[in-house]
Design brief:
The complex is a heterodimer of chains A (450) and B (528). With 450 residues, chain A is α/β, with parallel strands linked by helices. Chain A is built from 15 helices and 15 strands. In chain A, the strands form 4 sheets. A 7-stranded mixed beta sheet of chain A has the order 2-8-7-6-5-3-4, with helices on both faces. In chain A, helix 4 (82-88) packs antiparallel against helix 12, helix 7 crosses helix 8 and helix 12 (331-368) packs across helix 15 (434-449). The radius of gyration of chain A is 25 Å and the shape is globular. Chain B folds into 2 domains: 114-375, Type I PLP-dependent aspartate aminotransferase-like (Major domain) (Aspartate Aminotransferase, domain 2); 383-507, Alpha-Beta Complex (Aspartate Aminotransferase, domain 1), CATH 3.90.1150. Chain B has helices at residues 38-41, 77-88, 111-117, 120-123, 135-152, 164-181, 198-205, 223-233, 256-266, 368-404, 435-444, 472-490, 495-500, 512-517; strands spanning 156-158, 188-192, 209-213, 238-244, 269-273, 293-295, 316-318, 330-334, 337-341, 421-423, 451-452, 462-464. Classes of the chains: A alpha/beta (450), B alpha/beta (528). At the A-B interface, helix 1, helix 2, helix 3, helix 4 and helix 5 of A face helix 2, helix 3, helix 4, helix 5 and helix 6 of B.
């Protein structure tokens, strides 16, 4: 077996040192009841055979790069520079663990400190942690944090929050016994009246996504003022962080906690994971913040160095009184994010954002020319919603047969809301070409006419 | 081109007058480069990417254009590569040396797995593209599920949890959902004192009350202690038990079946923390021991890289009693192929009528990138290889135990351990040297220290987990090094060297107290 260094000879020698006859005897001495192993499982395979098998499975999937592709709704296809993947595969990054011994982990700790600064600046907040699992679980953690800060137990969600994110919060609400209220779904509009009307003295937090799941952009100031006037916190959610190269940061518009899915920068689509949750908030809430944090300090020589800090919030010290049960972060995904952000820099990010917006505007213009297609959004970044003159899901299936992945039908996210059945959300990033847009428009005309 | 005036170098004949190494002007030390922060070397006017030009269009940003300076310095590609390569060189890693960090299973990460995870059909597919276009991905998830279920003897699986603690949350939520479905108000969860901190934190997050169970003198939990706890709290209050097996002391819970029976008889459920599954994979099936829910840490047992602390992946297997409550999404087979059931209210679903999923734990479907790596690892090993790997892991830990047992105290007596061995610092008591000092000296010797001060059930814990990836030569050097350090400490020589270690590292001991007292969590330029 290529991954095991022992030979029968070394195993024998080590067993002799221990004074047992066999490895099975060790299990018996340790009280582990050896069982008949299940027989349906096959024996080991050569590297070549494994590669052949998995390549065959990979080949059954239609990769985004295989043709026209407009799918978004919380995960976005961007071009990632080759050096990012090369650098994150450095052994010292890839095969190290949580930096529990800071003297031999300064590489990880320094990039986490740089990451935290990049995230805080990007989201317009005072501080950020060293990441959570992903945006959706970060959203759940933010709600729990708001409960701790306000000592209230009712979260108010925007109807235009990604349904998977709302789903995570609702699961937690049920399991951890708090209340959830939600405003109405308003596709294509940054409607806030119903949301603001629902804020009351019991509300711990208002959760608003911008750009929302339909692509609309929000001026958060009014909601922030309304929430804070009632003693509630504003939690802003961003699922497309490239947008923050073009639009104002939620923290700068008054959000108390900002959650984002960081996948767009440095990380591939990966069918939904691994991703990374960006988590930022006001300095005064630092001791209520979940997840790992890296801080600056000095060493015995007086040199600047970095350590994991504020661990008294965490489960390994506080056990059942911890702020959260989280142990792992998204280390390597943070590194990919941070390297890509460093390569982009402010200049690159702003240009990338312009490029995305320009593509999406071109796409919306082209689609609005088609009979039976109505663009709903007044504002958007790189994603928007159209209403078709028939249900969107079969249209998307038919376009997929033509090798065009046209976007996400709203029915995929709201299977029980018939009025949304004709809606389709499309994203256009820098990876979309003019030819792809033309292909989509031609294909869409054909299937709508059919 | 060679310098034609150069000479072949040759060290001085005598080493008596060799100078002590001095602080360098540059801050570098030979191969070890000191690297400033990105914010000190990067520039707002620099970039390392060339993007295509964009077409000028109207702006539809709703009047929300960002006009301020964001504060994101850039670097050109050569500068960025150098920045991160230099940072990497300040890290210890499995690829560079022995990393016996107990309870973390730092085994070799095969590079085949990285290559497979980067196949475009896995890395470049979207979680919301039509399911007809991702049948290969669903097959891969199904194949991984099959292995994990067969290896554990369990009934169903939830793949989506993002890490071990998230898996714990998933398993305990399934238990809570099952209790609710039975209109039960049971709210006490029994947790042994040696449990990882995530166990009580998870139970508490779900509103359960935690009742602690002491371990016996041999380090394991007695069924009689569980029975006592059940009786003290009243059988009708017991929601379940969270037990790690093998436990955090590296010992197999010998009475696990009797414990499971006691909890089941009381009407509760048995959650098993599978963090230590590496000790038993291919050999012992938790399902046969009465377990109702167990999470895996794919980043431990199945070698998906730890990546400096993540990402993890924590699938949960469930017994028949809990299967109906598995979260969304889950896989379902039909004539048309595989379907990922994302919602039960879609009207056209032909999902099993008894499914009562407790909800959604995360957006999308979990850590696909980790599933590919784990399956690649599993297929490479096969059942025989997995059993050999767990066997070698147990062999290595017992070898270390045997080699060190006369020098270091085992808090629960000398007994066969599983894949990790626990010592405490009591034999160092009069030396002035602590577990922390030993760990820091090991760093100077070129090893990553063992896990220290965990579990909390003994004083100055040293938890050593060699894994199956280490050769005898590698383990022997570690054992000999540790032996010499302990002898040095016991001889009372060089105590100060222990307290000051490490000295051969990019940084000396760091002031963690100051870091926590006045947290500096982001860079601020000194001119601000």
């Amino acid at each position: 077996m290529r991954y095991l260094p022992h030979t029968d000879h070394t195993r024998r020698a080590m067993l002799d040192t221990i004074g047992v006859a066999s490895i099975d005897d060790l299990f018996e001495q340790a009280g582990a009841p050896l069982q008949q192993p299940p027989t349906s499982l096959p024996p080991h395979k050569s590297e070549m055979e494994v590669e052949q098998h998995l390549s065959a499975l990979s080949g059954l999937n239609r990769a985004a790069g295989d043709g026209a592709f407009f799918v978004g709704c919380g995960a976005y296809r961007h071009h990632v520079p080759a050096s990012v993947d090369h650098l994150i595969q450095r052994s010292e990054f890839l095969t190290s663990y949580t930096p529990y011994q800071p003297e031999i982990s300064q590489g990880t700790l320094q990039y986490l400190f740089e990451f935290q600064t990049q995230v805080a600046n990007l989201l317009g907040s005072e501080i950020a942690n060293a990441s959570l699992y992903d945006g959706s679980t970060g959203c759940g953690e933010a709600v729990l944090m708001a409960h701790r800060i306000t000592r209230r137990k009712k979260a108010l969600l925007s109807g235009n929050l990604h349904p998977h994110y709302a789903g995570v919060v609702k699961t937690l609400s049920h399991m951890s016994s708090f209340l959830v209220d939600q405003s109405e779904v308003v596709p294509g509009q940054a409607a806030t009246a119903d949301l603001i009307a629902k804020i009351d003295d019991e509300t711990s937090c208002v959760v608003v996504q911008t750009p929302d799941v339909f692509g609309s952009l929000y001026d958060l100031r009014e909601i922030a003022d309304a929430a804070q006037a009632k003693g509630a916190l504003l939690i802003a959610v961003v699922t497309e962080v490239v947008s923050l190269g073009a639009i104002q940061a939620p923290g700068d518009m008054g959000a108390d906690i900002v959650i984002a899915e960081g996948q767009s920068i440095g990380n591939g689509l990966n069918f939904g994971g691994p991703y990374l949750g960006l988590f930022a908030c006001r300095q005064k809430y630092v001791r209520q913040m979940p997840g790992r944090v890296c801080g600056e300090t000095i060493d015995a020589d007086g040199k600047r160095g970095f350590v994991l800090t504020l661990s008294t919030r965490e489960q390994h010290i506080r056990r059942e009184k911890a702020t959260s049960n989280i142990c792992t972060n998204s280390g390597l995904c943070c590194l990919a994010f941070s390297i890509h952000m460093t390569l982009l820099g402010e200049l690159g990010l702003k240009k990338l954002a312009k490029l995305n917006h320009s593509k999406a505007v071109q796409l919306s213009k082209a689609l609005s020319e088609i009979e039976g297609v109505e663009v709903l959004n007044q504002s958007f970044f790189n994603e928007f919603t159209v209403r078709l003159n028939k249900p969107a899901e079969p249209i998307v299936e038919r376009l997929a047969e033509k090798n065009i992945l046209a976007g996400v039908p709203a029915s995929r996210l709201w299977p029980d809301q018939k009025p949304l059945d004709n809606l389709l959300m499309l994203a256009a990033t820098e990876t979309v070409s003019d030819a792809h847009i033309e292909e989509l428009c031609t294909g869409l005309k054909e299937v709508l006419d059919a | 081109m060679l310098n034609n005036k150069g000479r072949v170098t040759r060290p001085q004949e005598s080493t008596e007058n060799l100078a002590e190494p001095q602080e360098s002007y540059s801050g570098h030390k030979g191969l070890l480069m000191n690297e400033p922060l990105l914010f000190e070397v990067g520039g707002l006017d620099k970039t390392g990417v060339d993007l295509p030009e964009y077409v000028e269009t109207e702006t539809l940003l709703g009047g929300l254009e960002r006009k301020d300076e964001i504060g994101l310095p850039g670097l050109s590609e050569p500068e960025a590569v150098r920045h991160y390569v230099r940072l990497s060189q300040q890290n210890y890693a499995i690829d560079s040396g022995f990393y016996p960090l107990g309870s973390c299973t730092m085994k070799h990460n095969p590079r085949l797995n990285e290559k497979m995870a980067r196949l475009p059909g896995f890395t470049d597919i979207h979680p919301l593209q039509p399911q007809s276009s991702v049948q290969g991905a669903l097959q891969l998830m199904d194949e991984l599920s099959h292995w994990l279920l067969e290896l554990t003897g369990m009934d169903s699986i939830a793949l989506s949890p993002k890490a071990g603690a998230h898996g714990e949350l998933c398993g305990m939520m399934a238990i809570k959902a099952a209790l609710e479905a039975a209109n039960s108000s049971r709210n006490i969860v029994l947790v042994p004192e040696s449990a990882h901190g995530t166990n009580p934190a998870t139970a508490a997050q779900l509103g359960f009350k935690v009742a602690s169970i002491p371990a016996d003198a041999d380090g394991t939990v007695r069924a009689s202690a569980v029975q006592t706890a059940i009786e003290e709290n009243g059988a009708e209050t017991i929601a379940g038990i969270m037990l790690t097996n093998p436990n955090t002391c590296g010992l197999f819970e010998r009475e696990i079946k009797a414990i499971a029976d006691a909890v089941h008889d009381a009407g509760g459920y048995f959650y098993c923390d599978g963090a230590n599954f590496n000790a038993i994979m291919g050999r012992v099936r938790p399902g046969d021991l009465g377990v109702d829910a167990m999470h895996f840490n794919l980043h431990k047992t199945f070698s998906t890289p730890h990546g400096g602390g993540g990402p993890g992946s924590g699938p949960v297997v469930l017994s028949e009693r809990l299967s109906a409550f598995a979260p969304l999404p889950f896989l379902q087979k039909s004539d048309d192929g595989l379907t990922l059931v994302e919602d039960l209210d879609d009207g056209e679903s032909d999902s099993p009528s008894d499914a009562q999923p407790f909800g959604r734990l995360t957006a999308f479907h979990g850590q696909m990138g980790m599933y590919v790596r784990a399956l690649s690892y599993i297929l490479s090993h096969g059942l025989d290889g997995l059993a050999q790997a767990s066997g070698d892991a147990v062999l290595n830990a017992n070898y270390i135990r045997t080699c060190l047992k006369d020098l270091l105290n085992q808090p629960f007596g000398d007994q066969a351990c599983m894949h990790e061995v626990l010592f405490d610092e009591s034999s160092l008591a009069d030396s002035g040297v602590t577990t922390l000092d030993i760990a820091k000296r090991l760093i100077d010797e070129g090893f990553h220290p063992m896990t220290i001060y965990f579990p909390l059930v003994c004083k100055g814990a040293m938890l050593i987990e060699p894994t199956e990836s280490e050769s005898q030569t590698s383990i022997d050097l570690f054992v000999e090094t540790l032996t010499s350090l302990i002898k040095e400490a016991l001889a009372g020589e060089n105590e100060e060297a222990f307290h000051q270690a490490p000295v051969h590292t990019p940084r000396r001991r760091l002031d963690e107290t100051a870091a926590a007292r006045k947290p500096i969590l982001r860079y601020e330029s000194s001119s601000d």
